[in-house]
């Protein structure tokens, strides 16, 4: 199985002005593409592992030889997270959550406005490269929480099911926002695809891996060779 770069579901320019065309072109066509290429290269001499999905690899790092474990963690994580990230955004986003997800956000963060400010603050304060997430906890009755992860780690590695994510690596915003990560995070909300987030939320009470596997497209594209 060869891991492949998924197509973007919209054009590079269509998220402007919040995310500029050149950032999107580099982020998808260079950064994400390099994680895919590096993952394939890393697994070249490990045919049994090359049969596995990027998500499986990320959740089963103890089965990956020590010599390639860090490379698999970084590149499989980069592939999974970016594949999810592109689908978290839409040029025709609908502004705010509805239905069961909206109720859960109100319940666990008091209000949508408070949730947004806490999410942006967590992302802004995260030290170095990483991601900020809204995810559903495995314990606590499935409470929604804000998490940050370093590198390309994913909350599923701790059993928490991801609903929403934003990339706080400098490559996600630096061309347009320079050092102003907070401005990038605060300006990002109009792009959020809440329909996609609501779909994930509805599946998040299954076991993490099962929910992920049954939702088409959340496992990054791969092709059989
Ligand atoms: Mn990125």
Can you walk through the features of this model?
It is a single chain. This protein is mostly helical and 225 residues long. The chain has two domains: 20-88, Orthogonal Bundle (Helix Hairpins), CATH 1.10.287; 99-224, minor pseudopilin epsh fold, CATH 3.55.40. The protein has ten helices and five strands, in the order E-H-H-H-H-H-H-E-E-E-H-H-H-H-E. The chain has helices at 21-43, 47-50, 54-59, 66-88, 99-109, 112-125, 174-177, 181-187, 194-203, 208-214; strands at residues 2-3, 130-136, 144-150, 161-167, 222-223. The chain has a three-stranded antiparallel beta sheet with strand order 3-2-4. The chain is globular and about 50 Å long. The mean pLDDT is 92. Manganese (II) ion is lined by residues 27, 31, 82, 167, 169, 171-172.
List the helices and strands and how they pair.
Elements: E1 2-3, H1 21-43, H2 47-50, H3 54-59, H4 66-88, H5 99-109, H6 112-125, E2 130-136, E3 144-150, E4 161-167, H7 174-177, H8 181-187, H9 194-203, H10 208-214, E5 222-223
């Amino acid at each position: 199985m060869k891991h492949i770069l998924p197509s973007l579901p919209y054009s590079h320019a269509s998220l402007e002005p919040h995310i500029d065309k050149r950032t999107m072109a580099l982020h998808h066509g260079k950064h994400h593409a390099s994680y895919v290429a590096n993952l394939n290269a890393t697994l070249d001499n490990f045919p049994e592992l090359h049969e596995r999905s990027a998500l499986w690899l990320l959740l089963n790092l103890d089965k990956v030889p020590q010599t390639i474990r860090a490379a698999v963690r970084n590149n499989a994580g980069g592939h999974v997270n970016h594949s999810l990230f592109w689908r978290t955004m839409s040029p025709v986003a609908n502004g705010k959550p509805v239905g069961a997800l909206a109720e859960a956000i109100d319940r666990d963060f008091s209000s949508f406005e408070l949730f947004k400010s806490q999410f942006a603050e967590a992302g802004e304060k995260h030290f170095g490269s990483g991601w900020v997430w809204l995810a559903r906890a495995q314990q606590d009755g499935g409470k929604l929480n804000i998490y940050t992860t370093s590198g390309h780690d994913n909350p599923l590695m701790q059993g928490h099911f991801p609903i929403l994510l934003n990339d706080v690596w400098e490559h996600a915003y630096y061309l347009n926002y320079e050092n102003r990560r907070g401005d990038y995070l605060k300006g990002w909300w109009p792009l959020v695809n809440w329909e996609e987030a609501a779909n994930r939320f509805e599946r998040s009470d299954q076991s993490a891996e099962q929910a992920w596997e049954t939702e088409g497209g959340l496992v990054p594209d791969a092709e059989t060779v």
